[in-house]
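Hi team,

As requested, here is the filled-out complex form for the magnesium ion run. I kept the field names the same as last time so the parser does not choke. Let me know if anything looks off before we queue the next batch.

— J.
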Amino acid sequence: MNKLVLLDRDGVINKEIGDYVTNVSDFELLPHALYNTKKLKDAGFGIVVVTNQGGIAKGKYSHTELDAIHNKMITAFEQVGVQLDEVYYCPHHPEKTHCLCRKPDSIMLEKALARFGVSAANTFLIGDADRDIEAATKIGIKAFKITTNENWEKYVDEILAAR
Ligand SMILES: [Mg+2]
Ligand SMILES: [Zn+2]
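And here is what came back:
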């Protein structure tokens, strides 16, 4: 793999509900996310999810509950033939503890690049928050900011045209 797309989770892959997704039943996949990701995968991109999950630090849900949510996500992608390459999350929250992984910091993104040996120049990010874009641009990754829950197919086409 020599190119990557990093995806934020809430508002990009699943419906942003305006609060923490604390259990599997609150996790609603956005159908366009499946097909957009498939298009990227078919073009040879690796796909890594990078998500802030500060609700863990706040005690709203546990790592185990988050694992169940992510298993639901992974399974939904598998059903359309897409293997997500990695899912990274930051379980911290600045009200509880300081960390360097929570976006707009870039450690999760850097981890993805290091893990797959892909350069920032060959990596793109899609997110719906300023902090997603900030984390990416900090390390030279081109980022696309979408409107929360919007279909981001046009950015997939832009990425495919750029490569
Ligand atoms: Mg988001
Ligand atoms: Zn963190």
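Two things worth flagging: The longest strand covers residues 46-52. The first helix runs from residue 31 to 42.

Thanks,
J.
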